[in-house]
Each structure stands twice: as C-alpha cells, then as structure tokens.
Automatic annotation (TrEMBL):
Database matches in Pfam families: HTH_5 (PF01022)
Keywords carried by this UniProt record: DNA-binding
PROSITE patterns per the UniProt record, alphabetical: HTH_ARSR_2 (PS50987)
CDD domains documented for this protein: HTH_ARSR
GO molecular function: cadmium ion sensor activity; DNA binding; DNA-binding transcription factor activity; lead ion binding
Name by which UniProt lists this protein: DNA-binding transcriptional ArsR family regulator
Entry-linked Gene3D superfamilies: Winged helix-like DNA-binding domain superfamily/Winged helix DNA-binding domain
Origin superkingdom: Bacteria
Domain HTH arsR-type: 5-100
InterPro entries assigned: ArsR-like_HTH, HTH_ArsR_DNA-bd_dom, HTH_Metal-responsive_Reg, WH-like_DNA-bd_sf, WH_DNA-bd_sf
GO biological process per UniProt: response to cadmium ion; response to lead ion
C-alpha cells in the first residue's frame, strides 16, 4: 500500500471539505449550481458578507479548484469549475438532507422539484424521469455501473433529434453518467450528454429556463413532440 499517496488523498479531501464547509462559501457554491456565472459582488450578496470577505472566500474556492474565473473586459465572473464539482455538491445535498426512508417525501419547493438545472443538465422529477425513459427505450447502457454509453439505437435516435453525438464525445469531460438527484434521491443524467440534451431541449422549446435561477418549465410542445420522454 502506498501510504504517501493515501495521506495526500486524505489531506486533499480534508482541504476540499473545509472549503465547502464554511457557510458563506457553501451559499456561493449553491448559488452557482444553476450554471450561471456571477460576479464577486453578486456572490457577496448571496453569501451575506462584505466584498472583501467574499474575495477571500472566492480565492479559497479557486485555489481548491471548485470555481473558475471568466474574464470579459473589465469584469470577472465566477462559475463552478466543472460538472464533477456540480455532481459532488448535488450528492452532498442528499447527505445533508433527511435520510431516505419508507414514505420519503422531499421538502424541496414544488417548482424546483418538478424540473431544474443541476449545473448544465436537467434535474428534478423531469430529469429523473428522462433518465429512466432513456434506459427504458434501450438508448442507454450501463445502468448498474452508473457510467453510461449510448446504444447504437440510442445514438441514431439522438442524432435524429439534433444531438451531435460525435461532438459530445469529443468534449473534454465524462460522456454520460448517473448524477444523484438531491430532491428525488434517484439518478438523473449527467455528463456531456446530459448537458447536450438540456441545450437541445431549450433550442427545441421543450423546456424554458428562468433567467435567474435553477427552475425549468416543461412546455406543452415537449409533451406533443416527445411524449415517450416527457409525458
């Protein structure tokens, strides 16, 4: 056993946990879960701290590679570093909530429970249902492992709907995976394919996204055109 490697991993885990555990930083990270980038001033307001304190918090989050900075002209924007960070935060929300038991009923606000973004893919009841229906249609494989691949039928089907499967495969991130949903306590579709599906759904008008927030709304068009996935 490589005790040095284990010690390094333990130390890094402790550092990450410490970065997330501070309440102001946790509020900032939760705010960024909607996939939108925000300024330090906006995040200071969310975290209920002074601008100087927010800068120190964001420096810590950046140091731990939990957020990244986008520079546009004179402006600096912060967003989650990648979908792995989003998936970890989503799972921590599950751990932070009440344990699932018989008769489990989430206390998530109904508008967010129905459909919302998890970083850049679809979550909530609609996201979980989509995940299950993609498997039921035989379009995804790997249900037991949680690391998914498109079946030949699935690749053809999604290409016909407008997903550029080859481009999704070339992206520098995990192709498709299970992301544990914090309100449903069951997986929704994450990874590059989940992100591509959300963007397709927005372009086709199957879902609408609030300008500021995580809420998504399924449209009647989704139920008319794609009842096998959205009904």
């Amino acid at each position: 056993m490589d005790t040095t490697s284990n010690a390094d991993a333990d130390l890094q885990l402790a550092r990450l946990a410490g970065a997330i555990a501070e309440p102001a930083r946790a509020r900032m990270l939760n705010c960024l879960m909607d996939g939108h980038a925000r300024t330090a001033t906006e995040l200071a307001t969310v975290a209920e701290v002074a601008a100087s304190t927010a800068s120190a918090h964001l420096a810590r989050l950046k140091e731990e590679r939990l957020v990244e900075v986008l520079v546009q002209g004179k402006h600096r924007y912060f967003r989650l570093a990648d979908d792995n960070v989003a998936a970890a935060l989503e799972s921590l929300m599950v751990v932070a909530g009440a344990p699932r038991a018989a008769g489990f009923k989430p206390n998530t606000p109904s508008r967010l429970r129905a459909a919302r973004t998890c970083y850049d893919h679809m979550a909530g009841t609609a996201g979980v249902a989509l995940h299950d229906r993609l498997h039921a249609q035989g379009w995804l494989s790997g249900l037991q492992s949680g690391s998914y691949e498109l079946t030949p039928e699935g690749a053809i089907a999604l290409e016909s709907l407008g997903v550029e499967v080859d481009a999704v495969r070339r992206s520098r991130r995990r192709f498709a995976c299970a992301c544990l949903d914090w309100s449903e306590r069951r997986p929704h579709l994450g990874g590059a394919l989940g992100a591509a599906w959300l963007q397709l759904s927005l372009r086709r008008g199957w879902v609408r996204q609030e300008l500021d927030g995580r809420e998504l709304a399924l449209t009647p068009k989704a139920q008319r055109e794609m009842p096998e996935l959205f009904a």
